[in-house]
Amino acid sequence: MHFVPNPELGNRIITLMAALVLVLQIAAVGQRWIISSIRIFAVQSFLLGAIAAVIAYFNQASHIYVVALLTVFLKAGLLPRLLERLVGRIGIRREIEPLINVPLSILVTGGLTLLGYVVAESFYHPEETSARAALGHNTLAVAIALFLIGFFTMVNRRKALTQVLGLLSLENGLLLAAISLTYGMPLVVEIGIFFDVLVAVMVLGILVFRIRETFDSMDVSKLRKLRE
Amino acid sequence: MILLALLIVPLAAGPLAFLLRRRHMMEVINLAAFAILFGMAAVLVAQVLRNGSVSLWNGFFYADALSALVVLLSAFVALVCSVYAVGYFRHDESSGVLQEAEEVGGRFGVQKLREYYTLTPLFVFSMILVALANNLGILWVAVEGTTLASVFLVMFYGRETSLEAAWKYAIIGGVGLSMALFGTILTYYSAYGALGTDTLAGLNWSVLAENAGHFDQPTMRLAFILVLLGYGTKAGIAPMHTWKPDAYSEAPIPGAAMLATGVLNCALYALIRFYILSSKCLGPQFGSRLLILFGLLSMGVAVPFILVQKNFRRLLAYSSIDHSGIMVLALGFGGPLGILGMLLHMTFHSVTKPLLFFCAGNVQQHLKTDLFRKAKGGLIHSMPLTGAAFLMVTLAVTGSPPFSFFQSEFTILRAGFSSGSLVLSVLFVCFLVLIFSGFLVHIANLVLGDDPGVPQANMCGWKRYSVAGLAGVILVMGFWIPAPLFRLIQNAVGIVVGG
């Protein structure tokens, strides 16, 4: 007797986990320590991998398991470790100086989440009552919110490393959109994406280190020589 | 087969140069690879003209007239730049600039040169892959690949300013490309209902283009906006252009010339592909309005910076922002005339722009400055060839007859008037005139005037012949376009407009 998973249950689990991912993202905005930002990012990536696994299980889309594994290994395991080592090497564990203070930042994040829902609303087709449409609606909103908040983090934070973290969490939003909307884009693409994320981080890592070497600081606002 | 060969040659040349020890051998490998590449691009053009399209591995790689045009232009730019690079880096080496760069980077020996000669073929490989990939995801990966390879080119000299430029380039490019990826994902999502497939072919452009009429419209709308912002960042259209002046003025000249032409073409190529999808799904109106807005904005942003520019390398970057604005605007005007103007402009731009960079590079290497103030003018006395070429190419780039930009800009203007947007067309002409005057005044002051007593420049043959040869090509192109090339462009127009 073959066990057929109940898709309704799957949707609930996915929505719950997507909500958790969003909460973590908002928590990262309020975070003042680089190390804890990195850890939050790791947990968030792990959850994302779990979402991928759940989607793969409930929809019998076995190729998404590969995405789940890659996410957990690369984004929740390898990347945070690399970043932590970088932090150790540069020796900055101090708090981050955001441009906008924490309470206000969280307020902005709330606004961005709302915006994500407004944008996602326009894709909602009530006439399509299939589970997929409803799922797409909720997770797309979370994905857009993650994307916007990641963008906001990049603008708000001045440290090179936190900007990289912002970029990475922005990419997490993309990944969520890719797996939940389309049940995984064709596999070649996902491998390409992960490869690219990794290489991008390597480039940024080198860059961060070199900036440190030459400027004795990781403050991006000191990069002010090239101006009109 | 030809598609695979086009990809393998640059991909093999990079690691090969990495293994070599002597500077001479690395130069030979690069020159040979790009010469072969250009020959193969010509073969691809011939095949595409004969058969309409070429594909490989069930359509995983796919080339039609549009891709063949971009491949041909990329190969041309790579070849020209590799010839100039030989002379440029020899000069750098003899004047001690490279040694300085190596000290900053903590390296020694021919390391720096090896870095350049290894990365450039990989850079070119990604540019070719952009044009040949049928899968929109692979297309995105390839565009990201051009960024990764070129970040190292931007920080080549290892100065404080180069690190700053590279950082800006990597971060802005990274954000831009993630927007493009989001757009790609949403495009796939909007096609999901129409195709209902998750096979490999589901993201293939040739499959999507056939079914674009049935896509989900609101999703496609958002997807196109994101793609426009994303690939627009790579093309450097305003307001996402801020990385451009820094990156162009910090990269070594041959690298900067490839950034300004090859990468620009790739980004615009991706934009055209999505424009075709969106106009099939939403009608041409939606995309056009956005494109016209961003195109005119880019030209408008470039005007004041060109008028008051103090640094001639940054001047080139603003000229590039202006030209990408013109091309995006032409795409927005649309219709057979607008697209023809755009593709002609892209062709002429790829041929002309490298010479502008080479002249600026010669001047910079001779005078050891890139500021107008320190250059003092009268260059025609100390560097007759470069000075004359600089003046000529300035006239060409600003669109004065008899040079070819006049034709393409005139075509775009006609497209603008015939599409009924009178105000926009007049604005377009105003911007062109302002940029023409600003650019010409700057370069005329630099080149003409009394002899300031600067010693004669001693240029090696590589630099001399690449400048003279390219100047010859530009002159000829003003009066005569090879018939097969024009047929290729016309076929590409057919793909964008009707296909």
Give the secondary structure arrangement, pairings included.
The complex is a heterodimer of chains A (228) and B (499).
Chain A: H1 7-29, H2 34-58, H3 63-90, H4 102-121, H5 131-156, H6 160-182, H7 187-215
Helix pairs in contact in A: 1-2, 1-5, 2-3, 2-6, 3-7, 4-5, 5-6, 6-7
Chain B: H1 2-19, H2 23-51, E1 54-56, E2 61-63, H3 65-94, H4 97-105, H5 111-132, H6 136-154, H7 160-195, H8 205-211, H9 217-235, H10 243-250, H11 253-282, H12 284-307, H13 312-333, H14 335-367, H15 372-375, H16 379-382, H17 384-397, H18 404-418, H19 422-447, H20 461-479, H21 483-497
Antiparallel strand pairs in B: 1-2
Q: How would you describe what is shown here?
A:
- Chain A is globular and about 55 Å long.
- Helix content of chain A is 76%, strand content 0%.
- Chain A has one domain.
- Chain A has helices at 7-29, 34-58, 63-90, 102-121, 131-156, 160-182, 187-215.
- Chain A has 7 helices and no strands.
- In chain A, helix 3 packs parallel to helix 7 (187-215), helix 4 (102-121) packs antiparallel against helix 5 (131-156) and helix 6 packs antiparallel against helix 7 (187-215).
- Chain A has 228 residues and is an all-alpha fold.
- With 499 residues, chain B is an all-alpha fold.
- Chain B has one domain.
- In chain B, 81% of the residues lie in helices and 1% in strands.
- Chain B is built from 21 helices and 2 strands.
- Chain B has helices at 2-19, 23-51, 65-94, 97-105, 111-132, 136-154, 160-195, 205-211, 217-235, 243-250, 253-282, 284-307, 312-333, 335-367, 372-375, 379-382, 384-397, 404-418, 422-447, 461-479, 483-497, and strands spanning 54-56, 61-63.
- Chain B has a two-stranded antiparallel ribbon with strand order 1-2.
- The radius of gyration of chain B is 22 Å and the shape is globular.
- The model of chain B has no long low-confidence stretch (mean pLDDT 87).
- At the A-B interface, helix 5, helix 6 and helix 7 of A face helix 6, helix 7, helix 9 and helix 10 of B.
